[in-house]
Amino acid sequence: MLRIENLSVSVSGKEVLTDINLEIKKGERLAVLGPNGSGKTSLLMAIMGFSDYKITRGNIIFKGKQINGLSIDERARLGMGIIFQRPPTIRGVRLRQMVNMIKHNDFDTDKEAKGFNLKGFLDRDVNLGFSGGEIKRSELFQLLANSPDLSFFDEPESGVDLENIILVGKVMNRILNKNKDNAGLIITHTGYIFKYVKADRGCVLLGGKIHCLGDPKWILEEVTKYGYEGCITCKGERITRKSRVKR
Amino acid sequence: MQGRKNNKEVPGKEVDIKSYKSKAEEKPYLEDLREISSDQRKNMLSAGVDPSHQGRSGTYIQIDHSVVHSKSLYPGLEVMSITEARKKHKWVDNYFWKILSVDADEFTKQAELQPHQGYFLRAKPGVKAVYPLQACLFLNENNIIQNVHNIIIVEEDADVQIITGCATASDVRRGLHIGVSEFFVKKGAKLTFTMIHDWAEDVSVRPRTAALVEEGGMFLSNYICLKPVKNLQMYPKAELIGRGAIARYNSILFAHPGAHLDVGSRVILKSENSRAEIISRVVSGGGDIIARGHLKGEARGIKAHLECRGLMVKKEGMIHAVPELEGSIKDIDLSHEAAVGKIAKDEIEYLMARGLSQSEAQVAIVRGFLDTTIMGLPLELQKAVDDAISACEQDAF
User: Fold this and answer.
1) Crossing angle for the helix pair B345-352 and B358-369, nearest 10 degrees?
2) Cα distance between residue B286 and residue B238, in whole Å
3) B373 to chain A: which residues are within 8 Å by CB?
4) Closest approach of chain A CAs to the CA of B356, in angstroms?
5) B366 and B337 housed in the same domain
6) Are residues B333 and B350 in the same domain?
């Protein structure tokens, strides 16, 4: 579905991602773990094509097509979608209008809004005065309406209380399970979300570089035990050892 | 120094009054508005005036210098030409030039020296009309001047909505409209006044407007100018002279290439606990806009806010926001916020990430920016306004 080859990205002249190689297969869910400021969001922004994120080297290949030069909307229409951590406010554009512009035909806006506890928000300006949890629900609501083949989740659990994290997990599963080929890239620094959404593979991003690739459960265990500092010295060896033992 | 010069309140860009024809052909009175031409009907509709009377409490239509229709459909509402009103009620003269000065500028003088009618709208005490009254001032002949003097009186405890639409026939290019309007909102009364301007590329417009709001009265004024116009200058003023009086001005403007709009709103809060709000949203699609606002607090316990947002969508054009606050007593609360800028990139890219093209995203953002829900427009008007906004979008991108 998505292949990233030797990708380096810079923002206002400063390199934020260095020589990234990643692949997400059809139907697969990849978890990217890493502390704040490690380049996780930059990775999503670069894949989506946001103008501040300049590709200095490498390729992004989506559905077999090199998309380095495509605009954001062209990428979205090819089947990518994203939930943002801090989306901008769009004054005068109601959430209902927004969803109706982007939704698939089979999406019942009013009915779904009820399930998201967003009924009262449909006639409010997009993101205007929304709390952290409300933004998260609204973003997921839009993503479900849009129903992309490849979904990017930027810190889906951040700012969400316990009650809502279950809802977040449910919706993520709905989006990812809608078609068997649907894939996802989930970014998190805590990993809490994996209690509710299963990831197939995981990796650690540190200082703009991929540090290890493997079973997300093991990675999370290691990170919990040694912290992200542990990843700097380990360079993925412990994970490699673990998978060898398993074999 | 250029900025200082612009800051000064001036009658706007030079207009040569003598270059317009002062005589227009006499138009017959129409008892039945179905006789109105389809071109006129179309242009009136786009200015929010519906010649079928549907959902209206009364109608006044003036074409060039002739009153072609005036009728009230609701008891307690008076709708007539200003000449007729002066004949019918001796006291109407007392309202003439009561809150505007006849020698304020060359345009007020012109309106007095060479009057071409105007409307008289009055709600009798306690009358609450469900449907709005409508008035249309129409330019049908090219190159003429139209000077009108309007008087609007909402008597004690009455509540009325008025829609006025100013429009031109499709083949009119050039003209000058001078509109003197004096509003009187009496004790406990409420007036919602919505004015839509739908002129042509080479029409100059000089409204001269003032309102007097008494105790507990409420004056809501909405102004929408989204269609091309050559140059427009106005600075309507409301004086709040009774305890707890309220004035609110909402303006939505779009300046097409070559247009010069100098538009402001001013409220003088003269009595205790009065309130005011001035909100403007202006878009330069290549033309120039000076967006003014002035709040003057002269009494205890007043509260007023001024908000001006400007959006530049083209390389050409200019927006100059001039908000002014003036307090002459303590225990007042005056505030303002102003912002001028282009469409934020993060907003465009956010919408693009949802699959909207760049131009679709820009259209959605400008449409949202020009959101009219704050105006609480009569439902009947919404379509005309939505259509005008759509037309702007096509011009803008």
Assistant:
1) 120
2) 31
3) 92
4) 6
5) no
6) no
Q: Indicate the helix (H) or strand (E) that contains B4.
A: helix B2-7
The distance of Cα B234 from the centroid of its chain, to the nearest Å, equals 9
Taking contacts as CB-CB distances below 8 angstroms, the residues of chain A near B353 are: 48, 50, 72-73, 76, 81-82, 84
Q: Kindly tell me if the per-residue pLDDT of A157 is higher than 50.
A: yes
**What is the mean pLDDT of the segment spanning A52-75?**
95
Is the pLDDT at B46 greater than 60? The verdict is yes
Pick from B347, B349, B354: CB nearest A142: B354
Residues B272 and B356 in one domain: no
Any A CB within 8 A of B386 CB: no
- Range(s) of the domain holding residue B67: 2-343
The 10s digit of each residue's pLDDT in B260-314 is 999 999 999 999 999 999 999 999 999 999 999 999 999 999 999 999 999 999 8
Q: What is the CATH number that goes with domain A2-246? A: 3.40.50.300
CB neighbour list of residue A107: distance below 8 Å, 6 or more residues apart: A99, A144, A145, A147
Which residue of B311, B337, B349, B374 to mutate against A (max A Cβ within 10 Å)? Answer: B349
Domains of chain A by residue range: 2-246
- Nearest CB partner across the interface for A90, out of B353, B357, B365: B365
- Partner residue facing B344 (CB), from A71, A82, A88: A88
Q: Do B136 and B54 share a structural domain?
A: yes
Structure tokens at B155: 């008597």
Interface check for A125 against chain B (CB to CB < 8 A): the answer is yes
Q: Indicate if B258 and B313 belong to the same structural domain.
A: yes
pLDDT confidence tier of residue B141, bands split at 50, 70 and 90: very high
- CB contact residues (below 8 A), chain B span 352-381, against chain A: 352-358, 360-361, 364-365, 367-371, 373
Nearest to B179 by CA among B195, B159, B161: B195
Angle among Cα B145, B147, B153 to the nearest 5 degrees reads: 155
